[in-house]
Amino acid sequence: MINQSQTLQNKTLRALLPGDALTGGGTEGGKKAALAEIDASCRVPVLFFFLSGLAWLLAGTILALVASIKLHTPGFLAGWEWLTFSNVRTAHLNTVIYGFASQISVGVTIWLMCRLCRIPLVAPGLITVANLFYNLGVTVGVGGILIGDSTAIEWLEMPRYATPILFISYALIAVWTIVTFRLRAERHLYVSQWYLLAAVLWFPWLYGTAQVMLLIEPVRGVVQAAVNWWFAHNVLGLWFTPIGLASIYYFIPKVIGRPIHSYYLSVLGFWSLALFYNWNGMHHLVGGPLPAWMITVSIVASVMMLIPVITVAINHHFTMVGHFGKLKYSPTLRFMVFGAVSYTLASLQGVASAVRSISEVTHFTHHTIAHAHLGMYAFFTMVMFGAMYYILPRITQREWPSNGLISLHFWGVALGIVLYVVPMSIMGFIQGTMLNDAAVRFLDVVQFTLPWLKLRTLAGLLLAAGHVAFVINVGWLLVRMFEPYRKPVVSILTGEAETVAAAKLP
Amino acid sequence: MSVIAFILLGSVVLLPAAGLLALRWATSTGQFRCPDKAALLPFDEVEPVGMETDCILGGNRR
């Protein structure tokens, strides 16, 4: 009876597969689709997610620059009431987290799931509807923030009328991922699939739980702060981090043509992340009016995160050993390795910042902002850029038009984020010691930060230059889709190199 | 039962249970049995081990 039911279920699901793939799929395994067929099937949905994500990146970059300038020049755009610092900073965060990073994540997840399940994209209509809901939700949410409807809850600032739209989208994406997993033609799971499946199931749970406990039926008192930090921290750890690591585990081996150093370590890293990360968050409330044990549990969990972090670091490093020279040739590898190293650094900084004696100095300072950017940008965003450099030529069947723009992009964002994170981390630490010294006037602390904040704006301009270069290159690539294919000197699509004389990226 | 209690109960009971079920499914289907094979999953006959796939200026080298 159960077997009959499962067979019927598999038949129903398999009806979603396009023509040639009908013979395959299901948990029994079956005919594996060709990579080119998979890439072609992903073209429209993945492009939708990437392009709308990049549009939000540009919007988020402008908002970030305005917010950064306002920190040292408060009179900037002061006549526009909807552009107050609180509105702009909040709109920036929500634009880049939900508009850019999450949408690129979904695009990468779709492509990786299809490739690793070895089936063409199923139910493209479901994904398209999810994308439309998603962009509608972010537009309504960011618009609501700018007109003053923010909920004032960190990372959940979008007004209540926007969030159900986003939740529908997340749920549709989760359903699509499960359907794809059920139809897979490859029985064995790669470690990236573990991370991706977990992420798409964890996030709707996180988002739904936080929405109910903070907005729909709000808990009272300090529990609000506990739930808020649990959510804010776990969005990083259980949504963005798994997708970032899934990408690194796939793209580094693919680019250099070498399997990961230790598959055992990669699985250990996944399960230890699943076990320890969701306890994190309340270490941000050191010194707050919470039961000490709650904060201690989070601190212990933060320190335990050393296990997945070290396993991932060892695995990535030993996979790359002997292949670092290839960083000259591959933009994907450059961004991925930059992101992988930043993951280790961000995690170690996070562990250190969770310790009470350090948190007492660094929290409520710019050090925390630097840490957030080290994780969200230097790690996650760089990895997503690297993934897009790999995926876009394959789904569009066109080569990147300009290597100069690739280099401008990489060096702009790499220098920009280093110039952002390093000085802000140092400044935040000094700021914290000054704030803890009762003999120092608060105004002196504020004045001390001014030159550092100007440096932050300069870093933001470098990041913006990199973003513009990337968007121009992507736009150019799309224009090429409507022109006849012209094989370049060296092709990444045909696997042939007519000359290697041009050598390396600048 | 309030919505909050329902969510907390769900989180405390169902999530760890789902994790344990996933782990049991993985062991029973042999997901951890052959790590060398699993590590090769990103590769296939078109793009095998040893083939670099993103060398824009250096060319693809087998």
Task: Describe it.
The complex is a heterodimer of chains A (506) and B (62). Chain A has 506 residues and is mainly α. Chain A has 2 domains: 29-188; 260-506, Cytochrome c oxidase-like, subunit I domain (Cytochrome C Oxidase, Chain A), CATH 1.20.210.10. Helices cover 72% and strands 0% of the residues of chain A. The radius of gyration of chain A is 23 Å and the shape is globular. The relative contact order of chain A is 0.09. Residues 19-28 and 495-504 of chain A have low confidence and may be disordered. With 62 residues, chain B is mainly alpha-helical. Chain B has a domain at 3-34. Chain B contains 2 helices and no strands. The longest helix of chain B is centred in the N-terminal third of the chain and has 26 residues, at 3-28. Chain B starts with a helix and ends in a 23-residue tail after the last helix. Classes of the chains: A mainly alpha (506), B mainly alpha (62). The interface between A and B is large, with 61 and 39 residues.
Features:
heterodimer; A: 506 residues; mainly alpha; Cytochrome C Oxidase, Chain A; 2 domains; 15 helices; 72% helix; globular; B: 62 residues; 50% helix; elongated; disordered C terminus
